Amino acid sequence: MNTFSLLSVHALPVLDLLQYQLGDKDMTILVLDAEGQPLHVRGDPGLASLGAGLADTMRAALAGEYPACLPAPCAGPCSPQCGHAMSGGAAVPIVDAHGQLCGGLAILGACASDQPCMLALARMSANMIERQVFLASAPHGLTLHFHARSACIGTLQDGLASCSADGRAVMVNAAGLAQLGLPRAALASHTFRSLFGATLAELAERCRSAAPGLASLQLGQGGTVHCRVQFWDSCDTMDRQEAVVDRESGGGQASPVRRVRAGLGRLPDLPASLAATALGQLDTGDGRMAQVIAKLRKVAGTDIAVLITGETGSGKEWLAQAIHRDSPRARQPFVAINCASIPETLIESELFGYEEGAFTGARRKGSPGKIALANGGTLFLDEIGDMPLPLQARLLRVLQERQVTPLGSGRSIPVDIALVCATHRNLREQIEARTFREDLYYRINGLVVKLPALRERSDLPALLARVLADEGSGCTVAPAVARLLERHRWPGNLRQLRSVLRTAAVMAGRGEEIRLEHLADDFMDDLAPVGAGTEAASNDSVPALGLDQMELQLIQRTLAAHGGNTSAAARALGISRNTIYRKLGMDRLAAA
Ligand SMILES: Nc1ncnc2c1ncn2[C@@H]1O[C@H](COP(=O)(O)OP(=O)(O)OP(=O)(O)O)[C@@H](O)[C@H]1O
Description:
Blueprint: H1 3-22, E1 28-33, E2 38-42, H2 51-62, E3 88-95, E4 101-110, H3 115-137, E5 142-147, E6 159-163, E7 170-172, H4 174-180, H5 192-196, H6 200-209, E8 215-218, E9 224-231, H7 247-250, H8 278-281, H9 287-299, E10 306-309, H10 316-325, E11 334-338, H11 344-352, H12 370-373, E12 378-382, H13 389-401, E13 403-404, E14 413-414, E15 418-423, H14 427-432, H15 438-444, E16 447-450, H16 460-471, E17 476-477, H17 479-487, H18 493-508, E18 513-514, H19 521-541, H20 546-561, H21 566-573, H22 577-584, H23 586-591
Parallel strand pairs: 10-15, 10-16, 11-12, 12-15, 17-18
Antiparallel strand pairs: 1-2, 1-4, 3-4, 5-6, 5-9, 6-7, 8-9, 13-14
Helix pairs in contact: 1-3, 16-18, 20-21
The structure holds adenosine-5'-triphosphate.
């Protein structure tokens, strides 16, 4: 899900709270995007047009020119009793997980005497939204809530840090940076360990053996903080499951870190470079991709449902986001649901919503459900092939009738959505096996596009440049490494490519060339069997000396015995990994 959609979705509950706090005060609340376009308006819709003029105020506020007070939308005494002029309100910026302006929140129509209070309310609300956007954008590893005082954990004051499963890419929110005493720019040169003085495995271990709930960490910069740890279990930004690491949840011998999807990450959103003509930006020179994009352009703005197929990590969600961004619905929400990651028991209420008290544990005010949240915009159903059969029938009804009935409600809500679905499964086979409804299939497959796997694409050099540019590392790839990457099978596709490059860029250092030694060990291990096979084949045609052959065979057998893990094989043979690569010709492969 992109930042725009995240902001739109996560602002809603905060808006409810703010409206409740303002009570019967006659004020208007605006949630704006970074250009000042209104995403949500509570109060006088006529004031929504003021949003555009507030974008500069938000930028100025972000540059440190607080307080950001606004000129009044209407002049005159606010009430005969008060006599104060209606002199304004408060507008504050909202930043994304990287500290970039992504929107703003404005309270308009305040009486002059209320202004300080409005500013405080606006700031607190913006802070709540920012935290939700941060958590929803967190990379695929773990998220820490930390503070020097344990009582502050779980409040708006605690610092948030999130990092990739290998602990190398770290994101920290403003409150966290203040506690670490670091400027945002310094983050790029840190790993989880250098910031928090422990590796992820050590942290997991410490959490298991510490008192339930909180662990403590010695900061790399000095000082101690208490922390609570969250792990990602699913890859859907909206459906993460929290697991407080403690004795209970640590569960047996399995390290919680192992539950993190190792090495493969999901970017929080489409980078700014893809924002303008999003579909065009995905066309980086591969013929098959160009055809996909040309087809999608033809259906842009129509009601034709799009079904995207392709291997995991091949960019299905990014493509769905791009379809949305290039559609007339771009300013409306993009709501993504991963049908595979929501427990079957929750998927119905998540999708269709529920009425107050519809079931035990239902939120007091009920929930509109994600289909209704997508109203006016695009609903992206990822892994549609994993949707349980009974729910397929309900979804079909929604798509036919264009209205949704929340659980426990007799009231239907009309919905106007563009539908994009994705799957890595073969839905026709599923229809044969009676695990997918044929009638639903024909509803969702208005246009079917297949994304090529990364190993089939001819534009790897352009993708390398694009990903490194997006990552902002200023790194380049040495020709030998580029050749090696061209030969890899990339089971994790673009997601794996990004993860490999992100780690390698940190290893190489800002602005440096990525060389072989900067690639992660586990990635090199994955490469080894391919290289071994290639070399073995070439050895058939170029007879080697007997001793060399025996050595080669020994290495290959040891590698096979260790499941292709070069580090383990090197340990068993008492030689270095580099020697293995050299003997197997991996170094020549890279230099070829
Ligand atoms: N065109 C692209 N250019 C560069 N990187 C991309 C591109 N498309 C996707 N990626 C990278 O790959 C990651 C995975 O993309 P995405 O989530 O769209 O894949 P997916 O096919 O939906 O995966 P899954 O099937 O596992 O849900 C993204 O977070 C991003 O890092």
